[in-house]
Amino acid sequence: MQHMNELERNLKALANKRRLAILKYLKRVGRSSVGDIASEIGLSFKATSRHLSVLTNAGILEKEQEGLTMWHSISPRKHPIVANVIKLL
Asked: Is the pLDDT of residue 51 over 90?
């Protein structure tokens, strides 16, 4: 059941065009700050933060604090289905 819950959480996180746009951008640039991601996808800082939180909680993204900047990147430990979706972006 644990595996199904993880898969469901991942699929729900991917089922949003804004989150797919974030993943497409991060696939291209490697890692980015919330502000740069928000500018790239045309959303507010707050809305972008919410989308990043969903992706991070699903294990799709990782975040790393450096000084005052929080960097987001695609997790190397993501579910294989997520990896296949990202390849298609």
From this structure: yes
Q: At what angle do helices 80-88 and 17-29 cross, to 10 degrees?
A: 80
Mean pLDDT of 17-31: 98
As a whole number, mean pLDDT of residues 52-74 equals: 97
In the block, which residue shows the tokens 């790239």?
40
Asked if residue 72 lies in contact with residue 34, where contact means CB atoms within 8 angstroms, the answer is yes
3-class DSSP assignment, residue 61? strand
As its CATH architecture, domain 2-88 has: Orthogonal Bundle (1.10)
Long-range contacts for 31-34 (Cβ within 8 Å, ≥24 apart)?
31/64, 31/71, 31/72, 31/73, 32/71, 32/72, 32/73, 33/69, 33/70, 33/71, 33/72, 34/70, 34/72
Half-sphere exposure of 3 (CA within 13 A, CB side): 2
